[in-house]
Write a structure and sequence with these properties.
145 residues; alpha+beta; binds zinc ion
């Protein structure tokens, strides 16, 4: 081709973060984040080998839940984290997995893709059922008295 090469993209590249970590049991090791990791790793300059996790949090919708004192409080549902514990001896944890919080402070740990898909399908099916209940409510109100 005789045209000029395109300018480099203006968007910042997300080159993997790499740092040197001191291991309490001895030695040091270079760690590299997977591309999807958003953890800051501020306290990961040293530790035991299997202390390290990489991950990224995802938010869930906040539902206004009745509260006697405040009227209502925002309750996040279906938030969670994609996570990997690269040095875990548990084969479920040493590969990327999901920690899902269906309710605040309640965790479904270590979901693999098949298990996560099953939860998504269950919730999606329930939303379809809620649509039916919504239609039932609208009809019930129209017919009321
Ligand atoms: Zn990381």
């Amino acid at each position: 081709m005789d045209t000029l090469l395109p300018e480099p993209a203006a968007v910042p590249s997300h080159s993997p973060r790499t740092w040197l970590r001191q291991i309490h049991s001895g030695g040091q090791i270079f760690e590299t984040c997977p591309a999807w990791c958003t953890d800051n790793h501020r306290s990961d300059d040293s530790g035991f080998l299997d202390d390290l996790s990489h991950g990224a949090h995802f938010n869930g919708p906040e539902l206004p839940v009745s509260d006697a004192e405040h009227g209502s409080l925002p309750m996040p549902v279906f938030a969670g984290r994609i996570n990997v514990d690269p040095y875990s001896e548990d084969p479920r944890r040493s590969v990327p997995h999901i920690h899902l919080e269906p309710f605040q402070d309640e965790v479904m740990e270590c979901l693999d893709p098949r298990e996560f898909a099953a939860v998504i399908a269950q919730v999606r099916a329930h939303c379809d059922r809620l649509d039916e209940v919504h239609a039932q409510l609208v009809k019930a109100r129209a017919e009321y008295r």
